[in-house]
Design brief:
166 residues; Metal Binding Protein, Guanine Nucleotide Exchange Factor, Chain A; 7-stranded antiparallel beta sheet; mainly beta; single chain
Length: 166
């Protein structure tokens, strides 16, 4: 089956990741988002921004004022995104538990993504739970991308086996 044959048509109130643009688009979101790790709310926000890119579920970025920043420590390494620039990583440290590279941010994003400067994104797969308007989300497949899958997003999604060159 080809990728085109696998694309799920969106129903009423749904978005297809195949309708998202490339290069990606940044937009504001006023949805109520919460992230919990080790039984503690790390993020509570209605001021997120989301990045929409073809084949990817949205990635949410949060203002630092909505994050329990005392639990975040500088992480190892960096990666480069052709659209957003150089990303730095943060480890989540709660008590004696350290979750390496749990989050990332762009200290000096490109002009098109200047809106996420000082915002932080989290890998939902590394958290206890992530919710959007009360719905527990599914993490994007794979260990590189940090997309959030809700009932109103349809795919298929990049990240799983065999999707590396989509």
């Amino acid at each position: 089956m080809t990728k085109k044959q696998m694309i799920v048509p969106p129903g009423p109130g749904q978005e297809s990741v195949w309708d998202y643009p490339r290069p990606p688009r940044l937009e504001d979101s006023n949805r109520r988002i919460e992230i919990k790790a080790e039984g503690i709310f790390i993020v509570k926000s209605v001021r997120a921004k989301r990045v929409l890119e073809t084949s990817h579920p949205p990635v949410f970025y949060f203002p630092r004022d909505d994050i329990r920043m005392e639990f975040l420590k500088p992480g190892f390494g960096s990666t480069f995104c052709e659209w957003k620039g150089m990303a730095s990583y943060l480890d989540l440290e709660i008590g004696d538990r350290r979750i390496e590279r749990a989050a990332w941010y762009y200290p000096e994003p490109t002009e098109a993504f200047r809106g996420i400067k000082d915002y932080v994104a989290f890998y939902p797969s590394k958290m206890d739970s992530c919710t959007v308007d009360g719905e527990v989300i599914k993490a994007q497949p794979g260990d590189f991308y940090g997309g959030w899958i809700t009932r109103d997003i349809v795919g298929p999604f990049k990240g799983g086996p065999g999707t590396g060159f989509w």
